[in-house]
Amino acid sequence: AAAAAQSEQARSQLLAELGPELERWASNEHIRLQPLQSQAWRALQAVAGAVQGLWGASARVELFGSWASGLQLPSSDVDLLVVGAPPSASAGAALRALAERLTSSGAIDAGSLRLIDTARVPVIKAHALLPADAACLCDGGVLHLDISLEGFGHHTGAASTQLTRAFIAQLPGLQPLVLLLKAMLASHQLNSASTGGLGSYALVLMATSLL
To answer: H/E element holding 38?
Structure first.
């Protein structure tokens, strides 16, 4: 019993030291990625310009996912949701029109653009080229963009982002914990649900349940 009590005390001491260390790491990561944050905003503005050129000033682009909730890594996709696309168009037709506008505007790397209109949520995947100070933070020197349309497919990205923000506000330890776990999964190529790994939102729900 004495040995068990001593072991539990040592464990508690380790956890007490680990918490502040984890918070310092997460804070340093946030500072390190600041050049990427401004580039993510520039990419959003560029896509918004193409969207409004197609569908008028009432159309807009919203950021959701990891970059909107503060849980991004350098490898995280910038998830962009187009709101206000004409409801009469099909997802494929609307995305093809947007892809053509983005290519002609020079807002993205045209050679990287892929249109996936057969997925549950149709999406444009593309790269935004980065200046040197931001490119050194990413593999390949590019920022990955995922552009989808509101109202097409079973899109829950905005709702899950709102819930994630609420969890982070209620649980101060959630953000650094999820960031660390995401980094660990990414280092072992286990951070994508599409290839058998664990997606970011599922990880948030697991960590929230634990805390």
So the answer is: helix 34-55
Residue for token pair 């409004």:
52
Which residues, other chains included, contact 26 with Cβ-Cβ below 8 Å and sequence gap of 6+? 175, 176, 179, 180
CB 55 within 8 A of CB 85: yes
Q: What is the pLDDT of residues 42-97, one digit of tens each?
A: 999 999 999 999 999 899 999 999 999 999 998 889 999 999 888 777 888 889 99
**24: its two tokens:** 């310092």
**How far apart are the C-alpha atoms of 80 and 48, rounded to whole Å?**
9
User: CA dist 5 to 14, 15, 86, Å?
Assistant: 14, 15, 65
Rounded to whole angstroms, the Cα distance separating 81 from 131 reads 24
Can you tell me the distance from the alpha carbon of 98 to that of 53, in angstroms, rounded to the nearest whole number? 10
